[in-house]
Amino acid sequence: MKVLSHSHMKMPRMLSHVVTYAPEEPEHDTAIEDINKEAFGPGRFTRAAYRIREGGPHDRSLSFVATSGGHVVGSVRLTPILIGQTKAMLLGPLAVRPAWKKQGIGAALMRTSMEAARRANHKLVILVGDEPYYAPFGFRRIEGHQIVMPAPVEPSRFLACELVPHALKEVQGRVRHASVA
Asked: Which residues form a coiled coil (predicted)?
């Protein structure tokens, strides 16, 4: 029987590393900013969700990183918001370094973050993103609601996940960071 060493295997080196998931810490900020820059470019600063996030901090206890070999390879953040007077959370950005995509890291970050939001008794999470990707996590289009983002959003990309039944019912108003009165 021939034993293959890692140098003889035909798989990318990164697959040999274990990916771990942990709550985000301040020392992760620079790496997360680099990942978001790489994933979304300079246009991220003009997007509706970014405008909300610049109103105040995200919730580090509900925001997570994926690391391998001590390096951040992905992250997801949840930010407290108000929709009118209704408390909710804004998910995003969710980003994974290009070399680490298609390995389930984004999905694992989503599951971890959404479960943390449920455990913290949040009722509603919104985001701007692709419904086919986010639907398996419980997100659906926000249709027929009077919810106003701070900048235009493609209606097909404006999604919500009700963590408790009917959490979206009768929610209306302007979306803003929870710290903005």
From this structure: none
Domain housing 102: 17-177
Whole-Å CA distances, 129 to 115, 125, 132, 154, 159: 19, 12, 9, 9, 7
CATH code, domain carrying 122:
3.40.630.30
Q: In this structure, which long-range contacts are made by residues 129-137, counting pairs with CB atoms below 8 Å and at least 24 apart in sequence? A: 129/92, 129/94, 129/157, 129/159, 130/157, 131/156, 131/157, 131/159, 134/110, 134/159, 134/161, 136/107, 137/107, 137/110, 137/111, 137/161
36-46 confidence digits (pLDDT tens): 888 666 655 45
Residue 40 in 3-state DSSP?
helix
In a domain, 9, yes or no: no
Number of domains making up the chain: 1
Does some domain include residue 10? no
Selection from 173, 180, 177, 179 nearest residue 85 by Cα: 173
